[in-house]
Amino acid sequence: MAEKNRQKLMQISQKPGNNVCADCGDKDPEWTSCSIGIFLCQECAGIHRSLGTESRVRSSRLDNWDTEQLEYMDGVGNDKAKQKYEMCVPAFYRRPKKNDPNVVKKEWILGKYLRFEFTEPAQQMAYTSQRKEGNLMKLGRDRRLYQSRKFVIDRAENKLSYYVIEDSGKVKSSSSFMSPASRSSYSFHSKQSTPKPKAEINLDEVNAVFVPEKMGNPYGLQITYYKNGSTRCLYLYSENSKEIVDWYNAIRAAKLERRQIAFPDRTLEQLSEDLTRDFTLEGWLSKMGPRHEPFKRRWFTLDRRKLSYFEDPLNAFAKGEVFIGHKDAGYSVTIGAPEDQSNCGEYCFQLHVPDRDYVMRAETKDEMEQWVEALKKVVELPLTPQDTKLASILVSKKSNSIRLYRN
Question: What is the pLDDT along the chain (407 residues), one digit of tens a residue?
């Protein structure tokens, strides 16, 4: 009887909608939430366990199923559950996919089934309000320490700003030597003055990427924007997973609102594309210098048509950045070392741009093939208006810290 019921459940799991994970879309899920009536992949099932009695997780293949449970699973299923729990998902909200970071999946699941964020829009204020303020831990550019900073998203100004949080003890010690009248005046003007932000960033230029492995923090978020023709990187985290995901989606919400104003004739689906974008590929490679200097190990990031390399993965600025144009303009990728550099070792490949050949070396064959494949896809892609804008933002530096090659 038990085996017969399991076979029936497997048939139910193959119905349209049930044959992918209800939360991330992974194929052929082998787990369920028998209390909600949905089919789940192993990773999402693990998150569902944290919901406690709200979501009772069972294995499709290993656990025993009675007739009542089968009827419930068959009567609900993934599609009906989505109609109930995803009635009001904002167009900007990131729905997780199979390979997305755990924090994205976690907050999607908690938001759906525990906080009912997508059935009750009032629960979405943390990322839909016109102004968002709060503290996040930010990695210092030079001191290499994480410190609390106040961040603000102001949609009306189209800005993301952050502020240094002053130590109240310092104010107290500096004012303790003042006369009573001076202290009164100081206190009045201090209350009236508005602190200046450490940085004000145009939201149109902001990208946000979850990078938990690179930062060594499960809630690590990297913000990038352009500053003086170079890409500036901010590394942030929160102790609270909901808080960091709320900030991520608040950025996306603000960007979508701007696009709706600028392009009123486009659909929400069109406007929601690439509100933020994950990096295409990241990892360590060794790079030969421009005059065939010895290889140096660098952290490389491929972000659409921009290839950046850093001395350290968490540097505020890249050591160099390369714009990758289309193959018809002289951009290409080849496997192997230059003919006059036969001693480069294994797993070498080259990125050819009009004014230079970048010679790089991976540590394994698989890594080399990954990079070569990713770069070849880039040079095959036609250029878009956004690519042209990128080429105009990045500038050559006499210091040689940035190299841009326009097509």
Answer: 578 888 899 999 999 999 999 999 999 999 999 999 999 999 999 999 999 888 999 998 888 888 999 999 999 999 999 999 999 999 999 999 999 999 999 999 999 999 999 999 999 999 999 999 999 999 998 878 999 999 999 999 999 999 997 643 333 333 333 444 444 443 444 444 568 999 999 999 999 999 999 999 999 999 999 988 899 999 999 999 999 999 999 999 999 999 999 999 999 999 998 999 999 999 999 999 888 889 999 999 999 999 999 999 999 999 999 999 999 999 999 999 888 776 788 899 999 999 889 999 999 999 999 999 999 999 999 998 888 888 777 654 433 333 333 32
- Total-model pTM: 0.87
SS (H, E, C) the chain: CHHHHHHHHHHHHCCCCCCECCCCCCECCCEEECCCCEEECHHHHHHHHCCHHHCCEEECCCCCCCHHHHHHHHHCHHHHHHHHHCCCCCCCCCCCCCCCCHHHHHHHHHHHHCCCCCCCHHHHHHHHCCEEEEEEEEECCCCCCEEEEEEEEECCCCEEEEEECCCHHHHHHHHCCCCHHHHHHHHHHHHHCCCCCCEEEEHHHCEEEECHHHHCCCCCEEEEEEECCEEEEEEEECCCHHHHHHHHHHHHHHHHHHHHHHCCCCCHHHHCCCCCCCCCEEEEEEECCCCCCCCEEEEEEEECCEEEEECCCCCCECCEEEECCCHHHCCEEEECCCCCCCCCCCCEEEEEECCEEEEEECCCHHHHHHHHHHHHHHHHCCCCHHHHHHHHHCCCCCCCCCCCCCC
Write out the two tokens for 327: 């193959």
